[in-house]
Amino acid sequence: MLEFDERAAAQLEALYQTRDLLRRRRLAMEALDATPGDDVLDLGCGPGFYVQDLLERVGADGSVTGVDAAPAMVAMTTQRVAGAANVRVLEGGADAIPLGDASVDRALSVQVFEYVADVPHALAELRRVVRPGGRVVIWDIDWSTLSMHGREPERMERMLRAWDRHLVHTTLPRTLGADLRGSGFADVSVEGHLFATTSMDAQSFGGNFPDIVSGYVRGLDDVPANELEAWLADLSALDSDGAYFFSVTQFCFQATR
Question: Does pTM surpass 0.70?
């Protein structure tokens, strides 16, 4: 699985400031619909951009708690919101959220549950900390929807299968709705959002994808370095020829406690 160390945290921080990730943040925030006075949890807060935005939405009468399992992310979020009086940044995971029962009005979790081994247990934890009537938003990716053009399809298939090893659930959205209902959540709904590009645009999710993959695959002992370099060179050539293509569908689930 991915290790969110300081290098990965810095890469993620840069990615979160691109056009496509700003779009995703806007969609997730609209779904969460936090209002002044709300107490909000960001589970898997990463570099802290959602925490920062949520602080503006809840105002002085509300509060935001960011939780992340990676110390590098906790440090980055803490630095990003330094000086705010109504925020906490805690180290912890989805399997044991470091909050009391019924302590938040709303909870957000973006690309976290696809890394969680026991999803029903984590959903029970999330339900535990949300107050009755509170809203939950979970955003994850169905990686089986990933479509990417390469001049050597078999090599592309090998690279994408290697990438699939970076997480626990490659197709989490297929079962997440049922798991939410099974965990006692109500009013479960989902919206799919396509992220696609025809160039290696640095502001797009797909344009950054080759660098993200290579950062992970270089650490795998069974993927030859020359195959990775050949894959990257092929994508660069396709981009130069105007033939680059990437698309993936990301899903936003909403539910109430």
Answer: yes
